[in-house]
Specification:
With 290 residues, the protein is mostly helical. The chain has 12 helices and no strands. The protein has a single domain, classed as Ribonucleotide Reductase, subunit A. The longest helix has 28 residues. The chain is globular, with a radius of gyration of 19 Å. The two termini are 32 Å apart. Bound molecules: fe (ii) ion (FE2) (2 copies). One fe (ii) ion binds next to helix 6 and helix 7.
Length: 290
């Protein structure tokens, strides 16, 4: 833990770039940071989608636009660090490939209905994502010894906790019938399940396989999902997962401190350890970056 409380509204100029220590860059962390930069940088597409789902609520749409700018800045900060660590890497090149190949239907359509079935459902899905990102960057902050990345991750984690609060408050403010518990659980589980979809695996591929290597190393989702997880799954500690599960529990109306939540956190921790160990074993000896 850094012990510093980071407030909203920071910029790239607040990062102490001159403290960058190349000897503390770890290859798997660098690969994970490059991939995370692409996913974060893609946030404006999600703002457009949320603005359709919440059309008519201009104040809220303005808040979502602020959220999207912060997410894109996360991408810019992570990318700048990656470019320091690997001067041959360029965000714009990797991002252009990612954007060309990753266009989920709800980003390209003009449907004003959430893919989660309701505005409340949409906010549960967003809370799940922010629970995941706040835990991920907290883990990154705690595990890295590179001082600049430590500060970037700490600042991003603080933003992600605030984003969670924004989406939780938005869910509670909706003039819609409360969803039954099973429905909220189902939305949360389906969003957790989507962590295995193309977004993370393809971002990892575009961020870490050079265009010149595409023919020799074609994109295979399951392969790059494992490569990605080998870099990300191992950074968590038990308390990060506990916090993640407590946040998701709160979003679906379950008691964050209950025995059921504690049991879910224990199970998720064991599954994650097992999967991270397997992914590391399966990818051992393979080059992480291009
Ligand atoms: Fe973010
Ligand atoms: Fe966020």
């Amino acid at each position: 833990m850094t012990g510093t409380v980071y407030t909203a509204g920071w910029s790239l100029g607040d990062i102490p770039w001159n403290q960058f220590d190349p000897s503390k860059v770890e290859p798997r962390m660098l690969a994970a940071v490059k991939a995370a930069a692409l996913v974060e940088y893609n946030a404006p597409d999600y703002v457009a989608y949320l603005s359709r789902v919440f059309q008519g609520d201009e104040k809220l749409i303005a808040e979502f636009e602020g959220w999207g700018r912060e997410e894109a800045q996360h991408g810019a900060a992570l990318a700048r660090w990656a470019e320091l660590a690997d001067p041959a890497w360029r965000l714009e090149l990797a991002f252009a490939r990612f954007r060309a190949g990753y266009r989920p239907a709800h980003f390209t359509g003009d449907d004003a209905v959430s893919i989660r079935g309701s505005r409340r459902g949409e906010m549960i899905a967003r809370c799940v994502v922010e629970s995941g990102t706040s835990s991920y960057y907290s883990a990154m902050r705690d595990v890295t010894d590179e001082p600049v990345l430590k500060e970037i991750a700490a600042r991003i984690a603080a933003d992600e906790f605030r984003h969670y609060k924004l989406f939780l408050a938005t869910m509670d403010a909706q003039n819609e019938a409360e969803l039954p518990f099973w429905r909220k659980l189902s939305v949360a589980l389906s969003r957790i399940n989507e962590s295995d979809d193309d977004e993370l695996a393809y971002a990892f591929y575009c961020a870490n396989v050079a265009p010149s290597d595409e023919a020799a190393k074609p994109y295979i989702r399951s392969f790059y999902a494992k490569q990605s997880f080998a870099c990300t799954g191992r950074i968590y500690r038990r308390h990060h997962i506990r916090k993640l599960v407590q946040m998701v529990a709160k979003a679906i109306g379950a008691a964050p401190q209950s025995r059921m939540t504690e049991a879910a956190a224990s199970l998720m921790w064991r599954v994650l350890r097992l999967r991270a160990g397997l992914a590391l074993k399966m990818t051992a000896g393979e080059t992480v970056t291009a």
